[in-house]
Specification:
- This is Flagellar basal-body rod protein FlgF.
- About 15% of the residues lie in helices and about 45% in strands.
- The protein has about 400 residues and is an alpha+beta fold.
- It folds into three domains: about 110 residues, no CATH class; about 140 residues, no CATH class; about 110 residues, Tick-borne Encephalitis virus Glycoprotein, domain 1 (Sandwich).
- Strands 7, 8, 11, 12, 13, 24, 25, 26, 27, 28, 29 and 30 form a twelve-stranded antiparallel β-sheet that branches.
- α1 runs antiparallel to α2.
Length: about 400
Amino acid sequence: MLDSIYIAMSGLQGYSKGLRVIANNTANINTPGFKSSSLQFGDLFYSNNGAPNNNFGQVGHGLSYGSTALNFKQGELRQTGNSLDLAVDGQGLFTLKDAEGKLHYTRAGQFEFNSDGILVNRSDGFKVMGQDSDGNMTEISLSGKRTSEGKQTSEIKFSGSLLTTNTTQNVTGVKVMDKAGGEHTLGIKFTNTNATTAGSWAVEVSEGTTVIGTGQIIFSNGQIVPANSKVQMNYTPAGLTAMPLSFDFSANVTATASSSLSLLAFASQNGYGPGALAGASFDALGTLSLSYSNGQTVQGSRLSLAQFESLDSVAARGNNEFDAVNPADWHTGVAGKSNFGSVKSGMVEISNVDLSQEFSDLIIMQRGYQGSSQIISTANEMLQELFSMKGK
C-alpha cells in the first residue's frame, strides 16, 4: 500500500507539472509569436518481484515526466497597421543580436528604429539583423538615409498637338528643378515655319522675358520626325551653374489641323527637390524600402532570417525569443529562398495556442490528478484499517 501511495504521488507531481504547462499556454494566448508546448509523459520502471520470467508478474512504479516539446505550427497573421510590425509566412525566424553580441531568434516581429537610426526589437532593444549584398550579417540602419538629395531637371516631356492652322502656340507652366532644389517656371513659344521648311516649328524657351534658347522640331504627315524631335539647350538659373535641358517631343506629340484634339502641354520632367524621410517598410523579400517627401524611394538592407532542422536545437528563453541549443542545426538566409518564407509588413503573428485543445487537456489533467488523489486516500484508509486490526 505504501508503494501505491508513492505511485499516486508520482501522478500528482506529473499532472501538476502538466497543469503548469497548460496554464502557461493559456496565459500566453495573446502573446505575439508565442509557441505552445506540451509535457512529455512516460511510465516509470517495472519490477517482477523476483519472478523467473521477466514478462510475468511485472508491477509498474508510477508516472514520469520529461521535457516539454515546443509546437512551431504557424499562428494566425494579424493586421496591425504599423509598417514596422513584421511577420514571416513560412518557417523563418527573425534574427536579433543583444548587447553582448549573442544571437537570439523570434517570430514576433515588433520592431522600431531607435534614436541612432538602428532597427531594434521594441521589447528589449536587441538589434534586428540584416544581410548585405555579400551575405554577411549586418545591422539595419538609417545612417545616411534620413534625407534624399534633390536632382536637377535634365529632360522635359510634352504631349498633345500643335495646330497647323495657327501661326504661333504657347505652352506655359513648364516646371524645372535646379540642383539646389529650387523650382523654376519656363514658357515655350512655338512658331509655325512651314513656309520655310515643310512641317517645321521654331521653338523659343524663355523665363519671364528672358530668352533661354531656341531650336526647331519637324513633323511629317503629322508625326514628329525622330531626328528632329528634341531641342537641347543650357539653362543657367540665377547664382548657379549652367544645367543642360532636353525638351523631348518624341512621344505623344502630333501636328494636326483638327482643333478637337488636346493642345500641346507640359507632361513631365525628371527633376525633384530634396526630401525628408517619410516612411519605412519591408517588402515580401524582407528588403527595407524608404520613402521620402519628394516622392522618391530607396532600397536598403535585407532582413536576415534563420531556421532550424530539429526541435531539439531550439529552446524558448522568454520575451517571445528562442535560442539555438545546437548552432550547427541552424541555417541563415533571406526571405523568398528555400523554406524561409516571405515577410509580411504591417502584420504580426499571434500565438498558436489552440484554446479548445488546452481546455480538453485541462480536463484530462484534472481527472488524472483527482484519480491519483483518490488512490492516496484509499491507500491511506486501508493502512488505517490495517493498523486498527493490529491494535485489536
